[in-house]
Amino acid sequence: MSTFTETKVIDQITVTENGIVLYREATRILKDGGQIAQTFHRTSLTPAQDLTGQPANVVAICNAAWTDAVIAAYQAQIAQQVLA
After folding, report:
1. Are the C-beta atoms of residues 37 and 17 closer than 8 Å to each other?
2. 16 and 22 Cβ atoms separated by less than 8 Å
C-alpha cells in the first residue's frame, strides 16, 4: 500500500531594491517518499508590515532587510506615488 504525505517549505526568499520581501511556499505531495506533485503560493511583504503569523525564516529576513532607512525610503516612495 502506498503512503502519501504533504510537506510545505519556504523554498525561495527575495528582497527587492525597495525592501519588499517576496517569498514562495512550495507544497509537495510525496508518494512513498518520491515527489509526485508540487504547487506554489507566493506572498509579498512591504517594509514595516505586521509580520504576525509569517514563517520564522521570513521574519528573520524582514528584520534584517527593513532598516529604519529602508522603511523611510519605502514610505517616501509610496507617498510620492499617491501624490502623482
Report:
1. no
2. yes
**Average pLDDT of the chain, as a whole number:** 96
Q: Which DSSP string corresponds to 42-75?
A: EEEE-TT---TTS-HHHHHHHHHH--HHHHHHHH
Q: 15 with 65: CB under 8 angstroms? A: yes
Torsion of CA 14, 73, 63, 13, to 10 degrees: -10
Structural domain spans, the chain: 4-83
Using CA atoms, how far residue 54 sits from 22, 27, 78, in Å, is 12, 16, 23
The model carries a pTM of: 0.88
